[in-house]
């Protein structure tokens, strides 16, 4: 009996496989090079595959710097490029590597989240602090940048080696975030000096930082991607995510269709899907990437985040000013200053004046 | 026949349209270039501002220029049209200190900028760019070399602004044309008002109203109105002439008929056959005169109304005159008169005329001369040639006609105050009609010591070709005296 069933199954399977194979052969390939965790984005990709069975989506998850390099070097060029390193994406678009997307979804996309109708910020990810529950036993957990600075100044001994943040050198995202921080207030450098004093560990991505927090290696993380951290915190109750109460940066993943995309129609379909109601609903409901569209309802939407956090969300502006961040001299100058502040921290006493000022 | 060829309104409209289109096209070309120039100027100033902002950020460190590109400069460069932006800071050797794109700034461009700030439009990777370069002196502790700041952006915004400005101009122009068109149509209506009024007045005119027009017309229509008035006046005159002629003719016919009636009545009352005989003779004479009168009236009417359609061919007037005089000289009526021809010019003289008309004319003149002169009078016919006219004259040595009466002689039923003959007074009127028809002129003059000369002046024409020339008469003898 079982034997028969097996044979039956086989007889069914073979033509099915053949069918699937032939369908695959006819499908349009689509190559997406992205700096976006595949586990996080998987629901979105699944939704796209079922909405467009005629497109054979190939999604490569890489680091931001690899993605950036692939834009100019890959042959054939990728169809769609997604990255969280906003200045680099912007530079590529400025260099003319993107092609315009002309669709209703693209036209109706909020102006603050797109540039030239060529590149679109399609997520809305707050930048957060995260701490381990252990921290709250020792001290008052920080709620603002100033709190963090105070902790770094007052609890220097206890926090030695327990603080982590992005490495501006290794991570494009981290570099962009620090640049933006530095734009808002010169006191950012006091923060950097403070981190230098506690020998903060510099990591290449949010995931490593979160793992460190869960392991107990770190107590406090600064400038983590909220999207990853929030999901992590749901599964790891020892990690608490804190959206800064003074201001919270918001990062957007930027997607564009490559100028030399081998499959422009499929690429347009993909980006259209990202911006469309369907894609954004999946984004808001099944991923922590937060939907930008105001008409989408779900646990992860920009509107809901604003309701929770208030008006303290400061999206990194998606405009030409981003280009300044990748200027080599400016970058060098910034990194030099970082190194100076981080490696040769001024004595904390020097800064006491500032702190009292702010209080 | 009235052929309607186009309408005045349409013609005016077409001309207006052509003018407006032609001038409008020129105007729009000018507007297009000027709006785009304005857009270029507006955006060039953004380039200047961005270059200034970048230059401000240039500093010298250890003999090397250092620049921390200000984000604001890039936003100024990008403008609200989100242009792609380019910047480059070059040291004195033309080496980039900082740049965001691998564009090469050509040496000649750098040379140009060394003198003065310079803007140029150029193409990089299939896109049109506007570049602005400017050299800044800088002072450092080690080096004092100048740096060049180059900035640029794509030109979509310029195009958009230029197009927008142009569209605004264009739409205003079109609105103006539309308005002008409507006003023009209204003006046309008003301007053509007098014509409409004149038309209405003519349409509502009584059929027998020949009076002059009573209308207010603009200068341009004065001639038309005057011509119409002339036409009406001519019609009025000819109508009056016709009525007078008809009245006169009736009157003329009535007199002999009344005579016939009274003669026959008298004869009927008498019993004497001799009276009957005499009455019959009188009736016969009267009938003769009446018949002649009727035939003259007929010929006058024919001349006046049908004559215009008669065929006119080249005619040798010398031959016709000779033939005619010979014919009349042999008639019974000329028995008592001395009818003769003066010396005729040699060779044929050609006029454009109909043979029967000339014969009728001569016949009437000769008949008149015979009728209004005493027996034994001398009647001479002759021709005299002038440069391009020929004069045919008939002179008699009769009593003549007083000067005042001569003009009236040409009117029908006018006998120059003579009641002693049985002429109808139609002869000279017929002659005058014929003369007019032949394009000639009739004149009456006095002959000394007494008598009348009637002269017909006719225009000469070129002799016809040989083929035609041999037909109308034989130009044989140069002078001839009738028997």
TrEMBL record, chain A:
Q: Return the protein name.
A: Iron(III) transport system substrate-binding protein
Q: Which organism is it from?
A: Onishia taeanensis
**Got a GO cellular component term for this one?**
outer membrane-bounded periplasmic space
Fetch the InterPro entries from UniProt.
SBP
According to the UniProt entry, where is the signal peptide?
A: 1-27
Q: Name the Pfam families for this protein.
A: SBP_bac_8 (PF13416)
Keywords of the record: Signal
TrEMBL record, chain B:
Pfam families per record: 2CSK_N, HATPase_c, HisKA
> What does the record give as EC number?
2.7.13.3
- The HAMP domain sits at 189-240
Record-annotated membrane-spanning stretches: 12-32, 173-192
GO function term, MF aspect, one: phosphorelay sensor kinase activity
What catalytic activity does the UniProt entry give for this protein?
ATP + protein L-histidine = ADP + protein N-phospho-L-histidine
Principal subcellular localization: membrane
Q: Where is the Histidine kinase domain positioned along the sequence?
A: 248-462
* Gene Ontology CC annotations of this record: plasma membrane
The record's listing under SMART domains reads: HATPase_c, HisKA
SUPFAM superfamilies for this protein:
ATPase domain of HSP90 chaperone/DNA topoisomerase II/histidine kinase, Homodimeric domain of signal transducing histidine kinase
Which PROSITE patterns does this one have?
Answer: HAMP, HIS_KIN
| Region (Disordered), start-end ranges | 459-483
What UniProt keywords are attached to this protein's entry? Kinase, Membrane, Phosphoprotein, Transferase, Transmembrane, Transmembrane helix, Two-component regulatory system
Cellular location(s): Membrane
| Highest taxon listed in the record's lineage | Bacteria
Q: What is this protein called?
A: histidine kinase
